[in-house]
Predict the 3D structure of the following.
Amino acid sequence: MTKKIDKLTQEQEAQLIQFREEWRKHGLSCERIDKETTKRCISELYNLIGKKPPVFIFCPSLLFVQYQIEYCKNLGSNLRENLGENLMENLRYNLRYNLRANLRVNLRENLGENLRYNLRDNLRDNLWSNLVANLVENLGYNLRHNLWSNLEANLRYNLRANLRVNLRENLRYNLRYNLRDNLRDKIKPKYLSTNLLGSMDAFWIAFYEFPEKFLGIKYSEKDKHTLNLWSSLSKSCSWFWCYENYCFVSDRPEKLSFNIQNRLHCEDGPAVKWIDGCELYYWNGIAIPKEWILNKQSITKQTIIEEKNAEKRRCIREIIGTKQYATLIDIKEIDKDHVNGQDVILYKTKQKDDIINEHIYYVNVTCHSTLRQYFLCIPKEAAKNAWSAVAWTFKMNEQEYKPIIET
Amino acid sequence: MKQFRQGDVLLIQVNDIPKNAQKITEKIIAHGESSNHCHRVSENVEVMEYNKELYLHVNDQGALEHVLVSNPTTWTKEHNPIPLEKGYYKVIKQVEYDPYENHIRNVMD
């Protein structure tokens, strides 16, 4: 029996860190799509599940893919009737692309009336269960056979979990939800999900590739070949959607910007931008309207009042600064308390509000863990002092509210 | 009774929970509306619901964690976990006032 490896050498430890960061670069790559490699790998994956190579439809962004698939599904019918009067204007505005011209180039030669038919058969689950689930089961078995569990856990933590948080939890989650919101808000097509993430699949590929490349672990030729395909694909494209005979592939973003905690963030432009002009704005991981970044003057008292989300109001305060925020909502400090190392400040508007003809009260609380500050509005009867105000936000009075642990 | 606060969620230790409280399978007791974050109790904690309020029954030892919705084993690195000793707890979500609607709503984050 092969002797199990129980720890990494100093050299392997160094290689692990270097390898992880190389894969992080692949996962977050903003290089243009490598169409030839993408075609080759996906065609081979189709081949492995007994399908003939698909016709490829390359799209400049994830959002564009959604429109493109929807358009193709509706070929032969009236697009305006299906998707609403504003579709074409929205497409032009959002994508700065001539969809019809693009489709003509892409589809004229290859796609006929059978396209709608083919798009019914989504191969996503087929590919995933046959070529990923099986693969990781085989490779995982191999690793367990050759590595002691503490070392496998170490690799899992250093490669898979580390990259996964960055790529899958922070980036994929945000992109997917933003896409859904965009589609819901602008036109009718339902968001089409995919679990085939190209570059963002780096987290699981790296985990299986490292032992093979640096620890001498041998995989079967078949598994190695399949892993290599996913690995090359991960270095060449972004998300893709597979159907019988057709495959829609998105290019990678041309810009990705993060804060120090690897959350999407950019203070002077979009945090994510694709080459078709599709762009997303984020402040420390929170999706925000682009006007808040590009035109800070557009933030008014009304913006703050109408924003129901406390986290987004916090973003506004951080974007324009506490002083300007306080000026906009026109408040003055009326009480201050210092509890467990944090300030709790009670504010009151200087003037009665024009609409309700009353003063409005706010309590400014600081999160003990993140040190983020939040302005929460409270009713007049809770504004006896700063502590009674914060107690009210937890449905208590100042005598009752006594947390012994705050995190 | 002891109180434990994790961000916009407060747990108050109580002597008992309402007799007709129904057990639910969900372990997430508060969602972040604009983030992939949530407040979640450990698997061994029973979550009960009564009259739109949540209660917890900790049989042995449990914890309140701040984790990713899409991967509940991953800590957000924001709020530290709070260990929970055996007992019953009431969940209170932080609220704020909307003076224009004269309405109290849960804080959304």
Q: What stands out?
A: The two ends of chain B are 27 Å apart (CA to CA). The mean pLDDT of chain B is 91.
